Give the backbone structure.
Amino acid sequence: MKVRIDGVTKDYRTLWMEGQTIKLIDQRKLPHRFEVTTLENHRDTAKAIKDMVMRGAGAIGVAGGYGMAQAALEASEMMQPEFEKYIQKAAVTLKDTRPTAANLYHAIERCLNAASIGSIQERVSSVINEAGAVASEDLYASEQIGIVGSELIEDGSAVLTHCNAGALAFIDYGTALSPVRFAHRQGKKVFVFVDETRPRCQGARLTAWELEQEGIPYTLIVDNAAGYFMRRGEVDLIIVGADRIASNGDVANKIGTYEKAVVAHENGIPFYVAAPRMTFDLNCPSGDHIEIEERDGAEVTGMWGVDEKGCPTKVLIAEEKTPVRNPAFDITPSKYVTGFITEVGLLKPPYTDAISSSFLKE
Ligand code: MRU
């Protein structure tokens, strides 16, 4: 993705490996500060996933794979039984961070398989290669999703999106924002309504920042304004990402997605979900079987930002002791989804057939 700092434009990926370390854009600091940080070992990586230093299903999947590569390198001098124990434990530590995104589990399972055959040196190389393959597939899928999805965006369209399913949620391009990027590069006029996305404001902080960097016109709206603009006929289509998609097409995505889908249906607005193969969980029969992460209530009672001098600060908007429920995701039943934008093309209903015939079961 293009990042402009002090008038100089540079290309960045969301995260990458350098030797045994992971380098990544610290997403907690955006949009006020652009900072690249370093994760020294797989435990640091697990903590960074949990604390949302990087977030978004694709990015945490790649981080999970790289975390496994770090663990394999950390164990490279061990004998086989210790190596196996270390890798298994690292997989549990990395999985035990955020339960909803399918990509994280997918990447870790692939790396675990890679760690199971050959000499220790061969196993270490296989895990590193597998983590690299997850990252390359993520990149390829995001690009293809952009190409497939851009055909759905007509010149002059207004797209509404929720949360951040942009380059920062993957290695680059993103899912929901990838069609928008491609349409813009094709010279189409495209405008984006950016949902603020309480409580962590990934729309306000990250999606708005990405669109600004790319020079794509947008406007930030509060979450509860989306229905207002839909009813006025100002929204032509909705594109969101996904954290896990069940085999019947039910979608887990950022809390509030369900409401957008229902209101879009009510107003006859197409509602698309953009996601790579890695987000489809063919072993999960429906949305009722998807574990939904519940996060700390402090995310709801407080807000983080910078003061007028640019210093990071937190303000309380409710009393700290206020009882809070804070589910991070919700389920959108497949009946509200107009189509899935994937790297293998646009999937249309009936989804159980479309999904099973497009993707092999793992
Ligand atoms: O809690 P987050 O910021 O990790 O949630 C991200 C989302 O819900 C995205 O929409 C989703 O991951 C799809 S884009 C990879």
Remarks:
- The chain has a mean pLDDT of 97.
- Residues 191 and 284 are 35 Å apart (CA to CA).
- The two ends are 31 Å apart (CA to CA).
